[in-house]
Amino acid sequence: NAGVTQTPKFQVLKTGQSMTLQCAQDMNHNSMYWYRQDPGMGLRLIYYSASEGTTDKGEVPNGYNVSRLNKREFSLRLESAAPSQTSVYFCASGETVGYTFGSGTRLTVV
Amino acid sequence: GQQLNQSPQSMFIQEGEDVSMNCTSSSIFNTWLWYKQDPGEGPVLLIALYKAGELTSNGRLTAQFGITRKDSFLNISASIPSDVGIYFCAGRNYGGSQGNLIFGKGTKLSVKP
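Output (structure tokens, whole complex):
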């Protein structure tokens, strides 16, 4: 089925550990996005990529890095996880109209 | 930066009741979108609005793009248990950068059978 695929679905990290969240889309979209969702805060943009080879900071980029590996894949890396990064992370892709979202990665940092 | 005020924050209603929620902004948007998020899933686009004053329906859902371009409304008629979830409004201003789809904080809807 066409869409956005995120892995893993769940992850528990210890403070200071690193990890990479993976995202792939098969809709041939140029633009891809990473959001975090926290209770009562809605969806906040971390980073986005308007096209292959470009990335830009969103509203809350601190503590994260991204890589647009190719047109399909956009990964999010936490170099040194902190408890404040406990959240649900969503990848999305899309252009003119709305975005298509993945089903999310629930990350807990202890 | 731009912010959207979405209200109410949560709603508890009886099955069969109608639901209304809205979003307001201090800035003008060229597009308004409404998403629904089921528990444990990502948001899914319900309705997109492109023109001030536009009224668009999708089944029991009706959304409107406010005349001032600073607000939007979503109505759900005759609610059913599967309407449970979080509803997000989102606005886009094409004058800005690519990453300028701004989301409201969501309205959490609970429906009692």
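The mean pLDDT of chain B is 91.
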